[in-house]
Amino acid sequence: MNQSKPETEPSGTLTARERKRLTKPENERAIIFTLAFVGLIAAFMQTLVTPILPELPTLLNTSASNATWVLTATLLSAAIVMPIAGRLGDMFGKRRIVLVLLALLLAGSIICAVSNDVLVMIVGRVLQGAGLGVIALGVSILRDVLHPKRLGGAVALVSATLGIGAAVGLPVSALIAQSFDWHVLFWLSAVLAVISLILVFTVVPVSTLRTGGSFDFIGAVFFAIGLVGILLAVSKGGEWGWGSPVTLGMLGGGVVVLVAWGFFELRTANPLIDLRIAARRPVLLTNLASITVGFGFFASAAVLPQLLEAPTTTGVGLGQSLLVASLCLMPSGLVMFFMAPVAARLSAARGPRVSLVLGGAIIFVGYVIAIGLMTEVWHAVLIATAVGFGVGFAYAAMPTLIMRSVPATETAAANGLNSVMRSLGSTVAAAVLGLILASNSVLSDGRAIPTASAFQICFGVAAIVALAGVVAAFFIPKHEPEYQTASIPVVAAKEPALS
Questions:
Q1: Which of 196, 230, 316, 319 could bond 254 through an S-S bridge, CB–CB 3.0 to 4.6 Å?
Q2: Structural domain tally of the chain?
Q3: Considering 180, 207, 234, which residue would you say is the last residue of a domain?
Q4: Element spanning 343, H or E
Q5: Using an 8 Å Cβ cutoff, are 285 and 475 in contact?
Q6: CA 394 – CA 49 distance, rounded (Å)
Q7: In which domain, by residue range, is 200 found?
Q8: Are the beta carbons of 156 and 345 closer than 8 angstroms?
C-alpha cells in the first residue's frame, strides 16, 4: 500500500524546497554582486537628505532644530538595529532578516515620498535607517556561503559599501534635488529597495546556519535605551548645551543603563551580544580601532564640504556649489571600491591586522597633509582620496578580524556590534568637529564661516584619532586561534537542523 508523502517536514529540519535549492550550485559572483548592491543602496540612505537639509525647515514647515531630527533619527535607528538584526539573523536566518530590513527600508521610503509633515518624515527615516543593518548581515552571509579563497575580497567589497554608497550617493542626491521635486529622492530609494528585495530573494541562498535559542528582549530594550541616551547626548550636545541637565542626564543615564545591561548580559543564557567574546583581545581592539576609522571617515565627509562651499570672501573658503563639493568627495568612494581586492590580497598575504594598521596610517598621513594643504579645490580632492584609501584598507580588514575571532553562529551579531562602533565614531566626530567649527568662526553676509584655524584644528584632531587607531590595531595579536569559516551545511531530511 502506497503511503502519501507527508505535507509537512519534521520540526527543526529544512523543508524539501530548501533542500532542493541547496543542492543547486550557487553563483558566487551573483551573490557577491547582490549583497554589494544592497549595501550600496542602504548606505545611500545616509546621504539621501543631505542636499535638502538646509531647506527642510521650509519644506516641512517646521523649525531648524526639528528638521535635524530627519537626519538624527536615521543615525539612531541604524545604531540600534544593527546588533539586534545581527542576533536575529544568527537565530532565524540572515537572508530572512535582510529581507525584513529591506521591507522596512521600502516602507520608510514610501512614507517619506508621500509626506510633507516632519513627524511622518522622521518615522519614515527611522525605517530607512533600519535598512543599514543589511551590510553587517551581508558580510556574515558571505562567511556562510563562499569558499574561503573568495571570502576576503567579497568581504572587503561589501564592507566598503558603507563608504562607497555615502560618497557616490551624495552627488546623485544633489543632482536630483536640484533638478526635480525633493520627493523624487524617496521614490528613487523605494524603487531601489524593490530591486534589492527581488535580487536577495532570487539570488541569495537560504540561511541554514542558525543558533536557535530565545531572543534576549530585555537585553535588546536596555541596549537600545542606553545607546540612544549616549548618541543623543553626543549628537545634540552642541544644540542643547554640553553642560545642560538634558545633555548630562542623557549621557550619564545612557552609561548607567549600558553598565547594567552588561551585567545582565553576562548572566543570561542567550545574550543579545556575548560580552565574553566581545572582550577577547582581537575583538575588543578591532572594535576600538573601528571607532577611530568611523571618526576619520566622517571627518572628511563633514569638514571638506564646508571648506569647499564656504565663500571666498573669508579668504578660506573655496566657493563651490553643493554639487561640485559632492563630486570632489566622489573619488573617495571610488577608491574604496577599486582598492577592495587589493586590500583583500594584502590581508590574505600579511594578515588583516596589517591592512588595518596600514589603513589607519594612511588616514593619519592624509590629515597631517591636510593641515597645510587646503587652499585649492584639488587639495580637498587629494585629502578625500587619501582618506578613501585608508578607510578602504581598514574596512576590508575589520570584518575579517571579527569573523576570525568569533564562532560562526555569532557572526552577524558580532559584525553588527562592529558596525555600531563605526557609527559611534562618526557620531563623536560630528559632535567634536561641529563644536570646533562653530567655536572658531567669523561672520560673512550674516553667516558664521569657520576660520582657517578651525579647519586645521579639525584635521589635527582627526589625525590624532587615526593615530590612536593605529596603536590599537598594532596590539591586535598576530597569531590567534581562529574560528574557521562556515559553508552551507548539508542537512539530512530527518537530521536536527543547524538552521
A1: 230
A2: 3
A3: 207
A4: helix 322-350
A5: yes
A6: 27
A7: 25-207
A8: no
pLDDT tens for 97-155 read: 999 999 999 999 999 999 889 899 999 999 998 988 898 888 888 888 887 777 878 88
Q: How many Cα neighbours within 13 Å face the side chain of 407?
A: 11
> What is the grid cell recorded at 291?
571607532
**Do residues 31 and 153 lie in contact, with contact meaning Cβ atoms separated by under 8 Å?**
no
User: Between 320 and 53, whose confidence is greater?
Assistant: 320
Say if CB 53 and CB 67 are below 8 A apart: yes
Instruction: Clarify whether residues 161 and 250 are in a common domain.
Output: no
* Residue of 337, 358, 361 lying closest to 349 (CA atoms): 358
Domain identity same for 322 and 468:
yes
pTM of the entire predicted model: 0.80
Answer yes or no: is 12 within a domain. no
> How far, in Å, CA of 473 to CA of 476, rounded?
5
Q: Which of 343, 346, 308 is nearest to 163 (CA)?
A: 343
Residue 166, in any domain of the structure: yes
4: in domain: no
Q: Which long-range contacts (CB under 8 A, 24 or more apart) does 440-447 make?
A: 442/314, 444/311, 444/313, 444/314, 445/311, 445/313, 447/311
* Whether 280 and 132 share a structural domain: no
Q: Which three cell numbers stand for residue 133?
A: 543593518
